[in-house]
Specification:
841 residues, six-stranded antiparallel β-sheet, 44 strands, Phenylalanyl-tRNA Synthetase, Chain B, domain 1, OB fold (Dihydrolipoamide Acetyltransferase, E2P)
Length: 841
């Protein structure tokens, strides 16, 4: 809503020294979102004055009609002599009062005015059009002023309001009253504590019930309906300059007097109006819902199929308006209209909002109706409109008007007088709540010695429905700046949960390993599953479908994090980042096998029952938290230090192990085959639940994820770089598997290191050998590291040698050689028993 300050002053006794920016600051403090303060016409400088056209000489020797005018500008030119000006406009005559920009002036857009010879004459200035003066958009001719505007030579900037401060307010859905000068003026009067003159206080003209016949089918769609008319209207009557200017400043384009009057009243009072040509109406008007199959061609020349939820204005010919949204083409006002019917109504906000979105017609009218308008304003708005048509259009106001009143009185709200102070945490003086609530138009009755207030909100504030709404009004008008800043106190012994600490530790660990965190939309489509090469019966294809997806190609909730990560990787590579390492932590959504097709919708007027909560819980999908990572390009960049190294399947496994270490568990690795990974370069990741994994079924193992190189078909489907690798791990299962993080014990005694080389069959995974060594070495083993793998003639065909470094340490003594050797031998014996390993000679 654009609010000219000079117009606002008509209804509010603002102090003389109040500027637009000062007013904006006070309104912002009161809760209105003033986005900008525009200074219309601020770039107009120099002599811009009124002029009287004394003589016009037609210059006919040129290709287009040109006029040389002698214009009286008083003494503004310094000589008092008539000013000679060349002009091509044809819409003025001798004796007309016009606006003249004299040499030295500068108009909007940096257009400088000077003296120059053109068409064989010396032109000393310019006769201005409305567009050139920034009044409104009008390229048809220059501005002809009405008599009495002023004397030739008078300064025009102030007389015509060429310079004007305009507040641009972003009106939130709960403050529909601010979509009018009347509403903003109320708030301005409240914050400055000055008088307010209500423009809606007009006396009705005519007799109620004697206007154009109309009925309302259902009070649920329209609670009040008013029709008022005029006859003998002059369709050629011009809109007053001041009205055009005000409309233009509020962002409305002037069109014609009949249309401009309806728009002006809407901007002034906040009540949308519609005007019909009475000669085009066919019989009585009815307000009703649309019937299936009905159509209407609207003013934008589009034939629309109507929905049964649309509120319609109809006559005997059928629909003539989509109520509150747009009128029909057949009954529009045109340049032959002499009898006008003005409609002012209160339509149900939800119907108008749905119709506006359904037909993609967002208008100034629908914006106000869907936010709620004053239910007692319709007679005043219609009266104001017909009075303006009579005043400026020469019309005669009808002796009667139609008034269908199906509205109900608002119920009062009980509120403790100190409730706003408790909400704000401030100490308001006694009587503050009652004073501010009366200021916004509420009827307030004090009960229980003033401790309780019985408040009836005004009809123009449909958003005030409960005590907290009333508290907000008191707090905003008292000033948000008066609310003390009190930092909250964290209760002792509380902080991050174990899950939160784990997520932070995992994020820091991956970031430290060179990965960048990303966030992806949790939506995907069947093409994502096809790209991942998932089989038809793969459990990951069992998904939840959104009822109203953002994108029709992605209507499903994700069951894996990989599609979003892969798309992000492709986007980064496409923008020149060849070496990419990304990770994401987020939820996946796994439908329950016995879940209902649709979640129940519990009522909102009370808390849900235990049965309703159970039904909701049954419909909610299982939502485990996962962490996934993808790598492409070089894992180690090349430089002066040597050659780089591309990312390989082992880097994906190491990223998963990094996650496990941050979560407090160690992951076991085993070869596996699972889409979307390469069948020969895929590892299954396990958590060993009993600390020691006997690999013979003696200990339970939990599968928590997979890692490795992606399948070539997946790389081709997504357009990924060759040999892209990825991992995905169930973070929730990692948290469940750990017994709790403990600080490591630091020993001051020396370490004893032993190396062993074991020969095993080539098919035996090194991870199994490592776990066997750990199990056999016992508690003295501090760490174990594989440092060499050898295949060749010395170990025989089909066999490999694995060399490990074992480090032993005790916390209470220095180990002897015998203890270290015994632990090493026990480890080798366990490896020999489980994997068939033999010591390499």
């Amino acid at each position: 809503m654009r609010v000219p300050v000079s117009w606002l002053r008509e209804y509010v006794d603002l102090p003389v020294d109040v500027t637009g920016r000062g007013l904006a600051a006070r309104l912002i403090d009161a809760g209105l979102e003033v986005e900008t303060v525009d200074e219309a016409g601020a770039d107009i400088t120099g002599p811009v004055v009124l002029g009287r056209v004394l003589a016009i000489e037609e210059l006919s020797e040129f290709k287009k009609p040109i006029r040389y005018c002698r214009v009286d500008v008083g003494t503004a030119n310094g000589t008092g002599e008539p000013q000679g000006i060349v002009c091509g406009a044809r819409n003025f005559a001798e004796g007309d009062l016009v606006v003249v920009a004299l040499p030295g002036a500068e108009l909007s857009g940096g257009f400088a005015i000077g003296s120059r010879t053109t068409y064989g004459r010396l032109s000393e200035g310019m006769i201005c059009s409305a567009t050139e003066l920034g009044l409104w958009e009008d390229h048809e001719g220059i501005v002809v002023l009405p008599e009495g505007t002023g004397q030739p030579g008078a300064e025009a900037v102030g007389l015509l309001g060429l310079r004007e401060e305009v507040l641009d307010i972003a009106v939130t859905p709960d403050r529909g009253y601010a979509l009018s000068m009347r509403g903003v003026a109320r708030d301005a009067a409240a914050v400055y504590g000055v008088g307010f003159r209500d423009p809606a206080e007009v006396a009705a003209i005519g007799t109620p019930g004697a206007g154009y016949p109309a009925t309302v089918a259902d009070p649920e769609i329209c609670s009040r309906y008013v029709l008022h008319g005029v006859s003998g209207f002059d369709p050629d009557a011009a809109t007053p300059l001041w009205m055009k200017r005000r409309l233009a400043l509020t962002g409305v384009r002037p069109i014609s007097l009949a249309v401009d009057v309806t728009n002006y009243v809407m901007m002034e009072l906040g009540q949308p109006l519609h005007a019909w040509d009475r000669g085009k109406l066919r019989g009585p008007i009815e307000v009703r819902l649309a019937r299936k199959g009905e159509k209407l061609e609207t003013l934008d020349h589009v034939k629309r199929t109507l929905d049964p939820d649309d509120i319609l204005i109809t006559d005997e010919s059928g629909p003539i308006n989509i109520a509150g949204v747009m009128g029909g083409l057949e009954t529009e006002i045109d340049m032959t209209t002499i009898d006008v019917v003005i409609e002012a109504a209160h339509f149900t906000a939800t119907h108008i909002a749905r119709a506006s979105r359904r037909h993609q017609l967002s208008s100034e009218s629908s914006r106000r109706f869907e936010r709620g308008v004053d239910t007692e304003l319709q007679v005043a708005a219609a009266t104001r409109a017909v009075a303006l048509l009579a005043e400026f259009g020469g019309a005669v106001v009808d002796g009667g008007y139609t008034h269908v009143d199906l509205s109900t009185a608002r119920e009062s709200i009980a509120i403790d007088a100190d409730h706003p102070a408790r909400v704000a945490g401030a100490d308001y003086p006694a009587g503050t709540s009652a004073r501010w609530l009366r200021e916004v138009g509420c009827e307030v009755t004090e009960e229980a010695s003033g401790e309780t207030l019985r408040v009836t909100p005004p009809q123009w504030r449909p958003d005030l429905t409960d005590p907290n709404d009333l508290a907000e009004e008191v707090i905003r008008l008292e000033g948000y700046g008066a609310i003390p800043s009190v930092p909250p106190r964290a209760p002792a012994g509380r902080g991050l949960t174990d899950s939160q600490r784990t997520r932070r530790a995992v994020g820091r660990a991956l970031a430290g390993a060179g990965f960048v965190e990303v966030l992806s939309y949790p939506f995907l489509g069947e093409r994502d599953f096809d790209g991942l090469q998932l089989a038809a019966g793969d459990q990951r294809r069992s998904t939840l479908k959104l009822a109203n997806p953002l994108n029709d190609d992605e209507p499903l909730l994700r069951t894996t994090l990989l599609p979003g990560l892969l798309r992000t990787l492709v986007r980064n590579v496409g923008r020149g980042f060849s070496d990419v390492a990304l990770f994401e932590m987020g939820l996946v959504y796994l439908p329950k096998p016995d879940a209902p097709e649709h979640a129940p919708m519990p009522p909102v007027d009370r808390g849900p029952t235990a049965e309703e909560l159970a039904a909701l819980e049954a419909a909610v999908p299982h939502q485990p938290r996962r962490v996934a990572a993808v790598l492409a390009g070089d894992r180690e960049p090349a430089g002066w230090w040597g050659r780089g190294r591309p990312a390989i399947w082992a880097d994906a496994i190491e990223a998963a192990r990094e996650v496990g270490r941050a979560a407090g568990v160690e992951l076991a690795v085993q070869a596996d085959q699972r889409a979307p990974w390469h069948p020969g370069r895929c590892a299954a990741l396990y958590v060993v639940n009993n600390v020691v994994d006997n690999m013979d079924g003696g200990a339970s193992r939990t599968l928590v994820g997979h890692a490795g190189e992606l399948h070539p078909r997946v790389i081709q489907a997504y357009g990924l770089p060759a040999r892209t690798v990825a991992m995905e791990v169930e973070l929730d299962q990692l948290e469940e598997a750990r017994s709790g993080l403990r600080a490591p014990e630091v020993s001051t005694y020396p370490v004893a290191a032993q190396d062993v080389a074991l020969v095993v069959e080539e098919s035996v995974p090194s991870g199994e050998v490592e776990q066997a060594l750990r199990a056999g070495a016992g508690e003295l083993l501090e760490s174990l590291r594989l440092f060499d793998v050898y295949t060749g003639e010395q170990v025989g065909g089909g066999r490999k040698s694995l060399a490990y470094n074992l480090r032993f340490r005790a916390g209470d003594r220095t180990l002897t050689v015998e203890e270290t050797t015994a632990a090493r031998d026990a480890a080798v014996a366990a490896a020999a028993e489980r994997t068939g390993a033999v010591l390499r000679g």
